[in-house]
Structure formats: structure tokens, C-alpha cells
Amino acid sequence: MVEEKELDLVNRGLMLPLMEEFYTIQGEGFHKGTAAYFIRVGGCDVGCHWCDVKESWDAEKHPPTSIENIVSNAAKYSDTIVVTGGEPLMWNMEPLTSGLKANKLKTHIETSGAYPLTGTWDWVCLSPKKTKLPVSEVYEVADELKVIVYNRHDLVFAEEQAAQVNENCVLYLQPEWSVRDKVIPLIVDYVMQNPKWKVSLQTHKYLNIP
Ligand SMILES: C[S@@+](CC[C@H](N)C(=O)[O-])C[C@H]1O[C@@H](n2cnc3c(N)ncnc32)[C@H](O)[C@@H]1O
Ligand SMILES: Nc1nc2[nH]cc(C(=O)O)c2c(=O)[nH]1
Ligand code: SF4
Ligand SMILES: [Mg+2]
């Protein structure tokens, strides 16, 4: 019975399968270098073969946690909260972001955009994936587009995705970590030839922080 009730609360976004939460420095994209509290929500079915957090995929491995607990923890650490996963938009983000906003916290999301947008966001980082493309409403609100480059074709994909975001969206190419030595030269050349793009690195991995 308890489990059924929890399932209902998770389905409504009042509890979330919480994988981990940690205070660190945003390593990637527009807000790189900014201290932020990360909330990593379990569950993802997008299936990127190079995903650096595959342990997040199975939501059932992560304990349903009440958003009151998540919010009160977050508020102790930072005024900037990054919600990531897993794919956070698999869940109803409205209760979590309402709670964060009630505490005057800035809400940022890292998402593949593969599910409809829920929640209230100060910053949306859209990282689209070929295996499960973003829904149109996420292209409309994205503040930054961050395309992961694993091979040359990802530069073609990046342009296709850039054609769909709003005009104020900041454009980033980020090397896939395991092939960084091979793709960084491609990205550097491409950005110099196409300066509407910027380079994003996973700087937390160079800094040896979470
Ligand atoms: C783990 S994902 C979680 C959020 C969401 N599922 C998404 O993909 O945007 C967080 C960010 O890390 C990026 N990422 C994941 N694995 C990576 C890797 N091996 N190299 C570079 N970036 C990676 C994703 O593209 C995304 O921008
Ligand atoms: N420091 C740090 N910055 C990040 N930016 C996006 C991350 C993510 O996994 O969503 C991430 C992460 O895992 N750590
Ligand atoms: S969408 Fe994000 S969490 Fe899901 S597999 Fe891809 S990188 Fe990993
Ligand atoms: Mg990460």
C-alpha cells in the first residue's frame, strides 16, 4: 500500500526518484564556473551510448524522495539550482520548481528535450539527441543549445538543431568525453569557420570535481 501511494506521488511530481544531489561548480555551457547545487533525478530512456551517467537510467534504483526534502536541502547550499538526470522532463517538474521558486532560488534544467516541458525555469539547457528528438516547445524556450560531438556527422546534426531553436539561444558544441582528443580539433576548426557556435568543455572533469 505504501508503495502504491509513493508511486502516485511520483507520478504527480510530489516525490521524485532522487539519484544524488551535490553542491559543485556548473562545469558546462553558458553558466560554466558558477557555483550551483545539482539535483540528479533518476530515469532516462533516451539511450545515448556514450552517456556518462548510465546508473541514472533505471528510475526504480533511486528512492522516491519528497520535493519538500529536496527543496529544503537545496536552499541550504546555493541560490542556483541545476536539475539534471537522467531525463528530468520524464517527471512533472511543476511541484519541484514551485518549491524552489518559493525559496527565491534560480531554477536551471539540463534536458534532452525529449518530453514535454513542465516546471518554471530561469535557464533551459537543451542537449538534443538523435535517438529521441526534442519536442517543439523545448526548442522554443531553450536558452542554450548544447550539442555533444562524437563524430563529424554530429556537426551536421548540430546545424539541423540550431535551425529549430529561438533566435536568442546560445549555441555550444561540446566534445563527447571519451573521444575528446579526436573531436576537439574538429570542433575548434568548425567554431572558427562558423563563429555563431561556441566551444563548451566538461570543465568539472578537468577540475576533478563532481
Ligand atoms: C547526463 S545528461 C542529463 C540531462 C539530460 N538527460 C540531457 O542529456 O541533457 C547532462 C549533460 O551531459 C551531457 N553528456 C552526457 N554524457 C556525456 C559525455 N560522455 N560527454 C559529453 N557530454 C555528455 C549531456 O548531453 C547533457 O548535456
Ligand atoms: N560540475 C558539473 N557540471 C555539470 N553540468 C551538467 C552536468 C550534468 O550532468 O547534467 C554536470 C555535472 O555532472 N557536474
Ligand atoms: S538523454 Fe541524457 S541522461 Fe539520457 S542517456 Fe542521453 S545523456 Fe544520458
Ligand atoms: Mg554530468
TrEMBL record:
EC numbers, comma separated: 4.3.99.3
GO biological process: tRNA queuosine(34) biosynthetic process
Pfam families documented for this protein: Radical_SAM (PF04055)
Keyword terms: 4Fe-4S, Iron, Iron-sulfur, Lyase, Magnesium, Metal-binding, Queuosine biosynthesis, S-adenosyl-L-methionine
Top-level enzyme category: lyase
Residues of the signal peptide: none
Necessary cofactors: Mg(2+); [4Fe-4S] cluster; S-adenosyl-L-methionine
Pathway: Purine metabolism; 7-cyano-7-deazaguanine biosynthesis
Subunit structure of this chain's protein: Homodimer.
PANTHER family from the UniProt entry: 7-CARBOXY-7-DEAZAGUANINE SYNTHASE (PTHR42836)
Protein name in the entry: 7-carboxy-7-deazaguanine synthase
Origin species: Flagellimonas nanhaiensis
